[in-house]
Specification:
The protein has 10 helices and no strands. By secondary structure, it is an all-alpha fold. The protein has one domain. The protein is 83% helix and 0% strand.
Length: 289
């Protein structure tokens, strides 16, 4: 009778251990893949991330936004000329040299609108260079060695009772679900940033058309700050990944199974939250609003 109970107990333990190891393997693999894609995603320029979307945005900008920017340039230049002529005692102290300044401003405004995408892509090229340089400095790997970790856990789990294994199985299922949700959040943050970049670039000619005027120039200046904020958001994301790598590599999974699993979940939650906050942090640093 005792032999039958022991065999049933061993069979139940084997089933639970198999469920736990399978769940841990899937969990670690999914986290490794998702975190590993962060550096790849943030290190790409808009045209490199998706050429088709970039071509669509550039086409919309050239055909829809540039004509509007041309009208804004006309309005701004007329406003600039009227202000220039009337600001000094209604024509009595007008200097002819001011006309050359006005023509030069008009040339600069037209040049900026005509080369809007070259300028915006130059900003993101700078951001890409910074991210790639950060990738070289952040040498710590973000991958959790699932194979060796699980092999070390099997011996520990074989010494556990059925009740403790059942509790561990529930923890594994809960944390695995949490990891899937966090994986989706990380994907949303990465894709959301790129979509925001495309949306921002699509209307670039309009703020660039205002940059040569003193009163209206704050629109273009703030827009340029926003571009740098989006470009350097990738750098802040890489810093988050580097911190995550240090935290993960400092853990010893086999010594405390429960603590290690919840620690991994907590670190991933912190990573997702930090990635989500990088946008507002970058805008705050560059004073973009």
């Amino acid at each position: 009778m005792n032999t039958i109970i022991e065999r049933i107990t061993e069979a139940i333990k084997d089933i639970l251990i198999g469920f736990i190891t399978s769940g841990m393997g899937d969990m670690f693999t999914e986290v490794n893949e998702k975190v590993g894609t962060i550096s790849t995603q943030v290190g790409q320029t808009p045209q490199g991330w998706n050429g088709s979307i970039f071509a669509l945005i550039q086409s919309l900008s050239d055909t829809v936004i540039v004509p509007i920017a041309g009208m804004i340039i006309s309005f701004v230049l007329c406003y600039e000329l009227i202000t220039m002529v009337t600001q000094k005692n209604n024509f009595h102290e007008f200097e002819t040299f001011n006309l050359f300044i006005w023509v030069f401003k008009a040339y600069i405004a037209i040049y900026l609108v005509s080369n809007t995408f070259n300028i915006t892509m130059a900003v993101f090229d700078v951001g890409q260079h910074v991210v790639n340089s950060a990738s070289g400095v952040i040498s710590g790997t973000t991958e959790i060695d699932a194979t060796s970790a699980i092999e070390g856990l099997i011996e520990t789990m074989e010494e556990m009772e059925v009740g403790e294994l059942f509790l561990l199985a529930l923890e594994t299922m809960l944390i695995s679900l949490t990891m899937k949700i966090l994986s989706i959040i990380i994907t949303v943050v990465l894709y959301g940033r790129m979509i925001e970049i495309y949306l921002t670039c699509s209307v670039a000619p309009i703020p660039f058309a205002t940059m040569t005027n003193k009163e209206w120039g704050n629109i273009g200046t703030n827009y340029l700050k926003g571009l740098f904020a989006l470009a350097f958001q990738g750098f802040f994301m890489m810093v988050c990944v580097g911190i995550y790598a240090i935290l993960v590599n400092s853990m010893t999974i086999s010594s405390n199974i429960h603590g290690a699993m919840f620690s991994i979940a907590a670190y991933t939650v912190i990573l997702a939250f930090s990635l989500f906050k990088t946008g507002s942090l970058s805008k705050s640093v560059f004073n973009a609003h």
